[in-house]
């Protein structure tokens, strides 16, 4: 399994360095993701194989009908995603064994082409050119009465493509290897191109977003607890009022201009990452680790920072006015040219390597 992750990570590392997002490598393309909300806003919108689709399913017993489903005239716990196959061909489909949903493909006459579930996890078949729909249905029985929602991700299946050798075949303007194998999962979006996608107000816990291009992605008020964003690009991403508990955000290539305003950030690992002009205004940061991260020109006014490591963090030219630091470890941190008006520091630990040491700190 690790070799497939390595291949995908290597592929994504190269594209993540481009400010323009997805590019071609060996004529393979990571296409722009779509969210369920986009299909609601534009009923004429369709997707094609190889695109990433993200949505969430409410409980069938949820007393409050999902507004997206109301607009599409669907029952609670069921989503429909239009997809167009542009050429005839043989395609692979696979569902994660932990998925709490079933998925079927129907044609324009509502004829079922296949259905995947825990008892039927994969299929390989010929599909004719035309318009189809994915029908995704919640089958969770673990929480039948609450408002719990289950995310789903429709992504290229790099494991199947690698095993079959399909990924090494010559690519053309019509044929793309990533079109040929699709994976349906609740927990994986490693390497996804999420640029500009609206993922606000979603339950996205325990999801692997590592190596993703999440530039200007909107995660406002979403629950991202225990999810992973390691080695991702979060430039201009929006995490306002988001819940990040036990979230992993190490080695972020760039989260400049991203906003964590009023976010809940607890037990988050944010080590060796980079940003300029990120916003943490009025956020609650507790028991987290920012060691070695660049936060220059950061807007942090009114934040509460408790039991957090900011060792070797560059806070130069940042606004930390009205910010409260309690039991924070700031060895080797850079406080030069910061705005510290009306800030509060209790047991802020510094040492001889701390630059521009603020007054009234505890030197270690």
What would you note in describing this structure?
This protein is 9% helix and 25% strand. The protein is mainly beta. It has a domain at 31-185. The strands form 5 sheets. Strands 1-2-9-10-4-7 form a 6-stranded mixed beta sheet. Strands 11-12-14-16-17-18 form a 6-stranded parallel beta sheet, with no helix packed on it. The chain is elongated and about 75 Å long.
Descriptive keywords:
mainly beta; six-stranded parallel β-sheet; 4 helices; 20 strands; six-stranded mixed β-sheet; 364 residues; disordered N terminus
Query: How many beta strands in the DSSP annotation?
Result: 20
- The share of residues in extended strands comes to 25-35%
Largest sheet: 6 strands, mixed
Strand order of the largest sheet: 1-2-9-10-4-7
- Contiguous low-pLDDT stretches (5 residues minimum) are 1-29, 67-73
Distance N terminus to C terminus? 45 Å
Fraction in helix: under 10%
Based on CA atoms alone, the radius of gyration comes out at 23 Å
SS class: mainly beta
Mean pLDDT: 84
Order of helices and strands: HEHEHEEEEEEEHEEEEEEEEEEE
- Count helical runs: 4
- Overall geometry comes to elongated
Q: Would you summarize the structure shown here?
A:
With 364 residues, the protein is mostly beta strands.
Question: Helix and strand layout, with pairings?
Answer:
Blueprint: H1 2-16, E1 34-35, H2 36-41, E2 53-58, H3 67-71, E3 78-85, E4 89-95, E5 101-107, E6 112-116, E7 122-127, E8 130-138, E9 149-156, H4 158-164, E10 181-185, E11 243-245, E12 264-266, E13 274-276, E14 284-286, E15 294-296, E16 304-306, E17 324-326, E18 344-346, E19 349-350, E20 362-363
Parallel strand pairs: 1-2, 4-10, 11-12, 12-14, 13-15, 14-16, 16-17, 17-18, 19-20
Antiparallel strand pairs: 2-9, 3-8, 4-7, 5-6, 5-8, 9-10
């Amino acid at each position: 399994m690790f070799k497939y992750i390595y291949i995908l990570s290597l592929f994504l590392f190269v594209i993540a360095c481009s400010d323009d997002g997805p590019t071609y490598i060996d004529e393979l393309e990571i296409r722009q993701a779509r969210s369920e909300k986009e299909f609601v806003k534009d009923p004429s919108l369709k997707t094609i194989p190889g695109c990433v689709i993200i949505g969430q399913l409410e409980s069938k017993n949820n007393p409050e009908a999902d507004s997206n489903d109301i607009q599409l005239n669907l029952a609670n716990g069921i989503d429909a995603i239009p997809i167009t196959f542009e050429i005839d061909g043989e395609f692979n489909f696979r569902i994660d064994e932990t998925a709490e949903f079933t998925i079927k493909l129907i044609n324009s006459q509502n004829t079922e082409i296949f259905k995947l579930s825990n008892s039927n996890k994969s299929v390989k078949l010929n599909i004719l050119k035309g318009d189809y729909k994915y029908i995704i249905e919640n089958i969770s029985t673990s929480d039948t009465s609450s408002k719990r929602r289950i995310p789903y991700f429709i992504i290229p299946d790099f494991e199947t493509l690698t095993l079959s050798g399909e990924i090494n075949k010559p690519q053309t303007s019509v044929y793309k290897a990533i079109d040929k194998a699709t994976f349906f999962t609740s927990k994986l979006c490693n390497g996804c191109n999420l640029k500009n996608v609206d993922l606000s107000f979603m339950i996205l816990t325990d999801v692997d977003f590592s190596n993703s291009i999440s530039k200007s992605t909107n995660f406002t008020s979403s629950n991202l607890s225990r999810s992973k964003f390691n080695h991702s690009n979060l430039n201009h991403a929006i995490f306002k009022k988001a819940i990040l508990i036990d979230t992993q955000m190490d080695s972020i290539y760039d989260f400049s201009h991203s906003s964590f305003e009023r976010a809940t950030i607890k037990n988050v690992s944010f080590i060796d990452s980079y940003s300029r002009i990120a916003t943490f205004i009025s956020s609650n940061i507790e028991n987290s680790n920012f060691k070695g991260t660049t936060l220059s020109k950061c807007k942090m006014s009114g934040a509460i920072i408790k039991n957090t490591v900011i060792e070797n963090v560059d806070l130069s030219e940042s606004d930390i006015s009205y910010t409260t630091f309690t039991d924070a470890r700031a060895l080797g941190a850079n406080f030069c040219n910061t705005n510290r008006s009306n800030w509060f520091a209790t047991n802020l630990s510094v040492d001889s390597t701390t630059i521009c040491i603020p007054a009234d700190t505890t030197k270690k």
